[in-house]
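Same chain as my last thread, 422 residues:
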Amino acid sequence: MIRFILADLRRLWAGSLVVVLLVALATALGVCVVLQERALRLGSARAADKFDLVIGAGGSETQLVLSSVFLRPSPLPLMPGEVLARLAADPRVDWAAPIGFGDSFSGYPIVGTTVTLADKLAGGFAEGKVFAREGEAVIGSAVKLSLGAEIKPMHGSVEEGGETHTELVYHIAGRLRPTGTAWDRAILVPVQAVWHIHGLGAGGHEGAGAARRDHEHAGADHDQHEHHGEIDPDAALDENWATDAPGLPAILVKPKTIADAYKLRQDYRSGNTVAVFPGEVLTNLYATLGDAKQILVAVAAGAQALVAASLVLVTVIHIGQRRRQIGALRAFGAPRGAIFGIVWLEFFFLVAVGIGLGFAFGYAAALTLSAMVSQTSGIAMPVGFARQDTGLAAVLLAFATLLAALPAVLAYRQSPAQALRA
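reply #2:
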């Protein structure tokens, strides 16, 4: 029986190849959707795990997380600098790191922050050391620059027509280890350098207002020199925060305990500030992604249904073309059960091979898409099969079993005499 099936497949190789490819492409679409959605959830969740608590001014919690954790550019409202001083003195806080953004270089975001965050973010340096002066910078693992290279910050981005600052040129002092987050594509500089380069300092409300104007008009075509200041690249860093520090878009906080984290979140969710756990915000985003996933899965299921209908049509035509062959087998004494088994096994083999190739194609497509997303966002997208994927494979194979039974039943019901007269 096996030899007969293999010979039949070699003789009808073109039609067999079409069946396999149709099944493979329909399966690959569904597998790619499942794997890519899972990779996005896992990658973003792991990126958010780096940060326990984010505090910002009142506004969108989602935008606060997207901007501070995933470094997606957006004009955030500013909170008073006194919040930073209060957090730094709070016994429940292990460390609090302000972040400031709005500048870029060669497509990489420049983030103003502290020595502590630069040290803690990646758990060490792949090469070099942390910045120790205002004119030094630290780069993420995916930034394609070398130690000692010059960085000329641009206000905004090239696409927005941003203006290059002439007051300061940073020099790269170190490269962080990979983190699998958007910060791998970031350039970290001292936050006080960011303040000074925009003409800010211990300016209280006036400084906060200037920072807000710079942030909201990043890349706009207007004269921004009035906000710029002259700074000393060799100036030492002072991270003892005063109550009159400039306004800040976000502060990343490391609480000492889980209980402290919840208390801090509660304390800073009133008034003019908002405190969020990035994981909680992502849960809401996942709900939205879940709805989108259902739509994509429905589209994939529709494509698979169309492929199944096409295969049924092809099968009926194929059985009609093989009526003489089936009649001859019956005339030579082949029992109906053997005919059923040959046709069923042949068609099931083709569909099963298509399903197997579909899983391989879907995995390869998800890897390609994840690599593209990781290259632009810096977030590592882990693509891999999970235990529940065996359920999908089992459902598809069960469907293949039923689908292969259709041509087998048609062949089973043919009488030898009618088949030979056809």
